[in-house]
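Query structure, 304 tokens:
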């Protein structure tokens, strides 16, 4: 029995040892795992040791650049500059009539006399505003871009006054220059016969008067010379080099004195004077005379 007891004790001890071993192994398995883990990857107390052992985290890659070429936003087309539309020329509107067809009186006669000074009225002067006066006013307005009405408004009157002078009594009475007797020197050959007494110029060929024109002469300080001369120079579109004024259809007969058309004579009549030339105011008449006269033709200036 003692032997058996000893065997039981030994066996119990052995079992106990085994149990202790098993329990210890179990306990150690948990801690042993940590130990292995500690040994394999436990934190090293040295600074930077963890970083040395840990695999380096890959650096963050930069965001991939787009392979597309950056496109600049399209430049908008330049804003079209609005072209300034020119303002339409305001339409001229005729003003109230100062004189109109059917009127009568001294103002109508003066209107006719002024129109006659600038060759727009060639009938006998009256006190009545009739068809001839209306036609003359229409022609005057049309040439000067004034509303064509045939009536005289303030615009028409202002323009007419600016181009004419106060009519003389002779003009208002309708008196015209009457040619006097021909000078005997005008009766032979081809002669421009100028009569200072009657302010006329006559174109005479072999004693026959072919054309008569009104004439105006030089002032007291620049008188038109008298006598017999010859046409020595002709200039259709002449301009005075001394006075810088137009002298159309100039026919020179004595130095710088010539027979020629005068716009001033046409506009102001006998209220003015020349610088010595023989002025005419009938443009068509002097143009025709210029075409008929030849160099060497005589010019006779005299008092009848």
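Result returned for the query:
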């Amino acid at each position: 029995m003692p032997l058996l007891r000893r065997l039981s004790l030994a066996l119990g001890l052995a079992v106990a040892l085994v149990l202790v071993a098993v329990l210890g192994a179990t306990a150690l398995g948990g801690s042993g795992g940590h130990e292995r883990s500690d040994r394999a990857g436990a934190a090293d107390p040295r600074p930077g040791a963890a970083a040395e052992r840990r695999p380096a985290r890959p650096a963050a890659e930069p965001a991939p650049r787009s392979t597309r070429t950056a496109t600049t936003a399209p430049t908008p087309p330049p804003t079209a500059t609005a072209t300034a539309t020119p303002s339409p020329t305001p339409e001229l509107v005729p003003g109230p009539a100062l004189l109109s067809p059917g009127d009568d009186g001294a103002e109508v006669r003066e209107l006719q006399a002024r129109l006659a000074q600038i060759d727009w009225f060639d009938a006998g002067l009256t006190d009545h505003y009739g068809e001839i006066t209306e036609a003359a006013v229409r022609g005057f307005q049309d040439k000067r871009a004034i509303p064509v009405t045939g009536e005289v408004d303030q615009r028409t009157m202002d323009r007419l006054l600016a181009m004419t002078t106060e009519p003389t009594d002779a003009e208002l009475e309708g008196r015209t220059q009457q040619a006097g007797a021909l000078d005997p020197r005008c009766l032979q050959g081809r002669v421009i016969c100028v009569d200072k007494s009657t302010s006329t110029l006559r174109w005479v060929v072999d004693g026959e008067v072919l054309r008569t024109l009104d004439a105006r002469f030089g002032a007291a300080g620049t008188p038109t010379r008298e006598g017999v001369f010859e046409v020595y120079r002709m200039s259709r579109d002449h301009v005075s080099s001394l006075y810088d004024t137009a002298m159309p259809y100039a026919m020179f007969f004595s130095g710088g004195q010539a027979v020629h058309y005068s716009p001033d004579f046409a506009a102001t009549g006998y209220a003015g004077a020349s610088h010595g030339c023989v002025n005419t105011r009938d443009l068509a008449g002097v143009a025709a005379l210029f075409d008929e006269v030849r160099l060497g033709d005589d010019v006779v200036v005299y008092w009848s």
